[in-house]
Structure formats: structure tokens, C-alpha cells
Write a structure and sequence with these properties.
single chain, about 270 residues, alpha/beta, Rossmann fold, 2 domains, 7-stranded parallel beta sheet, about 15% strand, globular, binds nicotinamide-adenine-dinucleotide, NAD(P)-bd_dom_sf, NAD(P)-dependent dehydrogenase, short-chain alcohol dehydrogenase family, Sc_DH/Rdtase_CS, SDR_fam, oxidoreductase
Length: about 270
């Protein structure tokens, strides 16, 4: 039997869908014939991606959604249900760090403000849990569905300077396993929960940490990452799509609770 990677006509909801990684995902889903709900705090940017997809003959809607407010997620879910009357896949893509939660030569761990720590922790952890409640409940009605979380290298071994982001992404790995078990045992064995853990991809959140604004050269941190990546380069966003399609398609129907690194070997390398 040839494995089935097809996602045509699947209704796929993507939070943070206007972002660098999830925008790429949305466009690919659109080209593959899925019905794409692009959810983002920034509705105008979500709509722009939806418009790009429909201009190419695909099906998409841009929907305002704050993943930290259950009312906002429920309103977004109503819009998706009015449009397509089902949800097959949820990608929990909204996430990120902020400079105020990052240590540097002037600001130590002791000085990080509680509100910045909480902001990062909530966005990356609670921001996956609440949409999983709302859209998971919709999947429970049909007894089928896939949830895909976006973890990070920080989840396996914390990177320096970003303690809240590291702890939150470690929480996402644990939550991926927890929810996979809960869904399979208590809701339906056909609702699967997995994650991908991207290695290093230059995006809005990390550009300043990896590339010197003035010279355009790699920062010391950027150089360390490349030295610790056996494939010796940053990833391209499109390279996340193989693992993503695998985990949300019937090809992986007996797989739940896993986190697949897409990292050029970073998580396997001890550095020596
Ligand atoms: P990005 O900043 O380009 O996109 C994040 C999107 O989330 C933005 O469009 C933003 O508007 C949206 N967002 C922020 N807060 C929100 C909220 N409360 N509700 C709804 N939407 C909200 O980030 P990205 O680089 O594309 O990252 C996407 C995911 O991948 C994140 O979870 C990130 O932590 C993870 N990740 C990124 C990298 C990387 O190298 N870029 C590596 C590992 C993991």
C-alpha cells in the first residue's frame, strides 16, 4: 500500500497563520487543495495570506483570533464552522519571544520583569492549550482530527538567554504527549496530537539575535548555531513542510505524541 499524504479538501486551521513559518504552511496547504483558515492576532495580515491563496485558485479565509482569549478563539471557530462546517487539522503556530524576556550583558536573569516572562510563557504554552480545547472539542464531534504543535530546539536542551521561551517550549513537548494520550484514550483514537521542532530558521523573532543589523554578518550566537548544525546552514521555511504534511495526513495514522525535529542534525550533535 502506498502511504496517503493527501490533504485535499481537509479544513486546516492555522493559528499565527500570518507569521513567517505558518504563512508558508498556509500557502502550501492552499496549493495542496486544503481549505485553509488563517487565524492571527493581525487580521489584516491573515487576510492578505488568504487572498494570496484564493488568487491562486485555492480556498482560504483570514480570521482575527487571539490565542490567549477563549472568547476570541470561539468566535474564530464559529466563523470557520459557518464556512466549512468541520475542522480536520489544527496547527498551533502562534508563538514567539520578546526582547524584554531575553537576558543580555546588562540584564541578568534576576532582572527579567515578571510580566515579560509571563507574556512569553502564556503565548507559547497557554496559546496552544486554549485553541486545542476549542478546536479539539469540534474534532471530538466527528471523532477524527489532527493537532500539530510547533515546538523548538529549546524544548530538548535550553538555549542561553531565553528562559521563558525555553521552558514554555519544553512544556509544549510535554503537552503534546499528554494531549495525545488523553485524546486517544478518552475522546477518540482517531484524534492525533504531534509536534514539529524546527531548528534554526531566520524569522522576525530571531533575526536580530542571529544576524548583526549593521554588518549583515552572523552574530557570535549565529556562528555557534551554524557550528553546531551538522548540515552547516540555517533551514528554509519550506523544509518544514515534509514533516508537517506527514504528521497531518493519513500517512501517519498510527503516530501520536511525537515531536519531530527538523533541524539539520542540531539536536543530535553533542558539539564534539
Ligand atoms: P512569527 O513571529 O513570524 O509569527 C508568529 C505569528 O503569531 C505572527 O503572525 C503573530 O501576529 C501571531 N501571534 C502573536 N501573538 C498572537 C496571539 N496572541 N494570537 C494569535 N496570533 C498571535 O514567528 P515564526 O518564526 O513564524 O514562528 C512560528 C512558530 O514557530 C512559533 O511558535 C515559534 O516559536 C516557532 N519556532 C520558530 C523558529 C524560527 O526559527 N523562526 C524556530 C523554532 C520554533
Amino acid at each position: 500500500m502506498i502511504p496517503d499524504f493527501c490533504i485535499k479538501d481537509k479544513v486546516i486551521v492555522v493559528t499565527g497563520g500570518a507569521g513567517a513559518i505558518c504563512g508558508t504552511m498556509c500557502r502550501t496547504f492552499g496549493e495542496a487543495g486544503a481549505k485553509v483558515a488563517v487565524l492571527d492576532l493581525r487580521q489584516d495580515f491573515a487576510q492578505k495570506i488568504a487572498d494570496e491563496i484564493t488568487a491562486k485558485g485555492g480556498q482560504a479565509i483570514g480570521v482575527a483570533c487571539n490565542v490567549l482569549e477563549k472568547d476570541s478563539i470561539e468566535t474564530a471557530a464559529e466563523i470557520v464552522m459557518q464556512q466549512w462546517d468541520r475542522v480536520d487539522v489544527l496547527i498551533n503556530g502562534a508563538g514567539g519571544n520578546k526582547p524584554q524576556a531575553t537576558t543580555n550583558s546588562q540584564v541578568s536573569f534576576f532582572d527579567l520583569p515578571a510580566d515579560a516572562i509571563q507574556w512569553v510563557f502564556n503565548l507559547n504554552c497557554l496559546g496552544a492549550m486554549l485553541p486545542s480545547q476549542v478546536f479539539g472539542k469540534i474534532m471530538a464531534k466527528t471523532g477524527e482530527g489532527c493537532i500539530l504543535n510547533i515546538s523548538s530546539m529549546n524544548a530538548f536542551r535550553p538555549l542561553t538567554r531565553i528562559p521563558a521561551y525555553s521552558a514554555a517550549k519544553a512544556g509544549i513537548n510535554n503537552f503534546t504527549q499528554w494531549l495525545a494520550v488523553d485524546m486517544a484514550k478518552n475522546v477518540s483514537p482517531k484524534i492525533r496530537v504531534n509536534a514539529i521542532a524546527p531548528g534554526f530558521f531566520i524569522g522576525n523573532q530571531n533575526r536580530d539575535l542571529l544576524i548583526d543589523k549593521e554588518t549583515g554578518e552572523l552574530t557570535e550566537r549565529g556562528k555557534s548555531i551554524i557550528n553546531l548544525t551538522p548540515m552547516n546552514r540555517f533551514g528554509e521555511f519550506e523544509e518544514l513542510m515534509g514533516a508537517t504534511l506527514f504528521l497531518i495526513s493519513p500517512a501517519s495514522e498510527f503516530i501520536t505524541g511525537v515531536v519531530i525535529p527538523v533541524d539539520g542534525g542540531f539536536s543530535s550533535f553533542s558539539g564534539v
